[in-house]
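Data card: per-record layout.
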Amino acid sequence: MLKKILIIVLIFFGYLAKAQVDTYSRQIIDSIIIYKDSKHSNIFYYAPEKLQLSLDKSGKPDFQLLKMRYVGTNCSNDVNESRTTNLVKLRIKMPVISTEKLKHIRAELHKTVRQVKLKPLPINKITSELLIPMKDVTDTTKVVKKSIGKTRASSADSKEGLSTGKSFWTERIFTFSLTDNETILLENQLKNRELALSFSYSFYADTTDPMQYAEIKTVDNLKEKIEDSKKEQTLINRVIFSDAFAITIDLQKWTELVKEVDVNESMPPVYAAIEVRCYDFYENLRPDLYLKIVEVSGISISDDKEITQSIKFYKKQPDINTHFIHFPYAIYIGTPLKYRITEIKTDGLKMVGDWQTTESCSSLIDVTTKADKLTFENVTYEIEINPEMFDKKGNNKLLLKISYRLNGKTEGKLLEFDATKTSLETDFYHDLNSDVQYQYELLELDTVVYKSDLLKMIDSYLYLNHE
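The structure for this 467-residue chain is written out next.
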């Protein structure tokens, strides 16, 4: 009887919810993960193929360890200064799913559903880490994790790297920063073939809230759940697909994979590349923003005319938070550049800003909305669960739902704990001066045995000890 009730509710919720991924509809066809849309029973989403490092025709990996030394310029009044920047650059490829495979998946789905519509999974966030096992002077091995999340994920060199509504992006460049010491250790071990790098990643998507369905246990609360479903439905942004792969680098065969570059005034003006960063979408700082356009102008050295290039940051591509502007002609790099920001809101309102100048010949422009202009705040919570709450045989788990307000709307996070995972950290943005609440459920063999009240998060540390 309970199973029939749950099926009825899932169908009913599907008609009321906005288009989103149905958490419980996961299936695998031809090694491809498939999800159903929670609103339209004939719409399905397919996950991408596993990522891999790009290789050229000779098998050389698209990998670069770049050691840049800045020796100062007159432009910056730091001629006597010297500093270094070390970067690892990877070009990551997403294999294209063949037309034949997509046709076969549609045919399989068509066996149970009429007029099947198959679309790419609506991924709205990507996180990645470069894992580097290193031996220090004491011969102790440790794993150094380099994350894109707090540094940057730069765009691909062409439009082929961008996602569309009909397909996934095909390749993208990921850049990681290293300290001088990490660079020395990494290079030495690459030369000695003692190292196996790993690249791990996770794709995120907005899905239905599993806790809404877990709450349905009897006929008595069926009507209540149907009424609740008519209200604004909470979306859970969660990992929908993750994987990792090893990266093997042979520096004895391809010595050019490590380069040393001096960056100073001797570089020809034609090589001027302006780095533009915007974290508004990646950090979800501006839920009201749909598109940000940045125009950058420089003066041509051939005819002293102004040259303007522009780039765009999109809400639908939040993981791309860095663009590089390359001018088609040589420009003066000894004078400040001009730039202008145009914002287009989600309601269609367009706001064109004033022209501004870069600071003292800087090649970096950060157009992220300033903190004093934000109406949100970022919080990081540390959550710990008493291990004694869990069955050592793995028969029970705890679901923690965190709810908060962002841009006036209710958002949520769903965290899962068990005997193997009793603590973690989570961070997110919410409206200034708004409360953060939480609620947890204890499950035994996937059956809810206890559900707490909705409680207020008091500080950044939460310890749960259910007795």
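Known properties of this structure: Confidence is low (pLDDT under 50) at residues 1-19, 148-163, 265-271. The radius of gyration is 25 Å.

See the next section for split statistics.
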